[in-house]
Amino acid sequence: MDNSIDIQGNNNNTFQGITNSTIHNNVHHHHAKPKLPKDLTIRMPTVNLKDVIGREEEIADLHQLLFESKQVVLVNGLGGIGKTTLSQAYLTTYAEQYQHLAWITVGGTSLESDFISALGKTFGITTEGKEVTDIFHEVLLGLKAIDTQPNLLILDNADATLSSYYDRLPRQPHWHILVTSREQIEGFKSKELGFLKPDKALLLFQKHCTRITDVKAIETLLRTIDYHTLTIEILAKTAQLQRLDIATLQNAIEKDIRAGVYIKHSNDKIDKVYSYLSSIFDLSNVTDTEAWLLKQMACLPADFHAYDLIKELICTPESEQAELLPESIENLVAKGWLLKKPEADSYKMHIIISEVTRRKLEIGINDVAILLDNITNKLEIDYTKDNPVEKFQWVAFGKALDNIFGKELLPKVSLLQNNLAVILRDLGEYEEAKGLLGKALIADEKNFGELHPNTVTRYSNLATVLRDLGDYEGAKHLYEKVLTFDIQNFGLFHPNTAISYSNLAIALKKLGNDYYEEAKLLLKKALIIDEKNFGESHPSTARTYNNLGLIHRALGDNKEAKVFLLKAFRLAEEYFGETHPYTATTYSNLALVFQDLGEYPDAKDLLDKALIADEKNFGENHPSTARSYNNLGLVYFDLQDSDSATPLLEKAYKISQNLLGEQHPDTILYKNNLDSIIQASKNQS
User: Fold this and answer.
1) Are strands 305-306 and 346-348 parallel, antiparallel or unpaired?
2) Is the pLDDT of residue 9 over 60?
3) What is the pTM of this model?
């Protein structure tokens, strides 16, 4: 009983002595484990939230995922898009809601060594004589031993190897884990970080550059670099420091312009624009097949493309590449080299990565031979059966390839340039078509000489573009050269000779009255050949009917003109349908004859149909549409409806002025028509 009483504390002196000793020892053990600071790592990179533009929604999303959804969150996205900055902004915004914070930048010899470097001293861990893995486990135990909550661990710039450590990392609710990576990592809740919206990208540029004030020019630049956050910051700061104008800035990446600016991404000054951007994209971890695929993607337009289309363009059926494509393309997405839209099963290479890939992998024309051939073939057009509008979708692909290989004087390249130029002409982009045909001609004259069929085709196509640009003498000279070749090589009754007769006749008609009879004679020759080779009901013959109708109208013979143009119009509708560009042309031409004959309602009906087709095929900003506005406006005036006529003539003039210039014959004609009608309206009033 005495012992029981003693233990209950009645013997105060004895009990106090024992108790003091016991308490002293227990306190001593607690003090052996040092009190941990809030910041467990020396580096705790916060950011001024005023410097973070356009990411407010993403910061709030991270908070919801970590606090409410209890997720282990991976911020996933392209290099330089702002993943680290977003994490810093999250840390700055919500640091007070956490008991302890740790920031580990991954990128050392191993993930384990990164943990040890950042946290080993914090937990007082000795390293001598221990394996790295053992020390790493001690660090993890130190994190897990913290019983306060919540705590935040940020792993910046991790790679796919992190997935093998997933089960060893500390967990909710004690630890919130936020990871950034270009790669997709198994087991982590991925939050894809997208590009800045255009208005926010503009604000970011304007924050760092106040010298350039032309908002539209800045917006064009931002579209060019596809709203890549780091590139926006670098270019803006470079423009401000180096006093660059917007035109110079457009070429800053290609020409690797000197920067000399500080950016937080590297915590240092960067010397040159492209050199730095290149340094943040390391291609050493891609396989040979992935490198091949990167080369193909770098030669496509910087847009999302459906998987089936990519496969069709870059692979031959049953090839090894076709077999490996599904796995390779997903690997490149997982590694952060390609972007994916799962819902559309489409893929994209960002323009900055395209630039890096092209330079680092040194893409040769043989690397993308299949792609080049496929795009060249898709741009080829047969006007007797194809609708040029259906070819417009391939223009961006052709331009992308020409941008890379356009200076190489090779037959494959010149054929691409020729086919692309022909479609650009249909799009109304005459100057660009002329430039491409000029490059193709240089290559073909070098490779084949002046008298080769390929070279002669380039002469003919260039002549057509010169005619569109109002250089009728230049067109006439080239067409005569082509006609001489065709007669010598194909004879007087070959379809090619008929085409040359027609082309030359159109150029002569454009040169005025003195050439009308000669043009009529050439077109009669063309018609004899076409009817002999194709018969009366063929698209080639229909085009000659159309051209003959126009020359008869120019000669004042509207009765004969109407006969030929009606034939062309009916054949066009039969072969191509009402909305085909060629059919719309026949509507317009026949309407001109109806107008000359005073049949204004019939002329208006045809021009209404022509305008509907032109707007559908080309939009408002196209030479053909401008022509329809002009012609319809004149008919409205003939119908004594000046209020309807004037706006149409104004549109025609402004479109032609913008597209073709003030001195183009069409622009001058539209301006004269507009002025005449305005004056006539004044006289009538």
Assistant:
1) antiparallel
2) no
3) 0.83
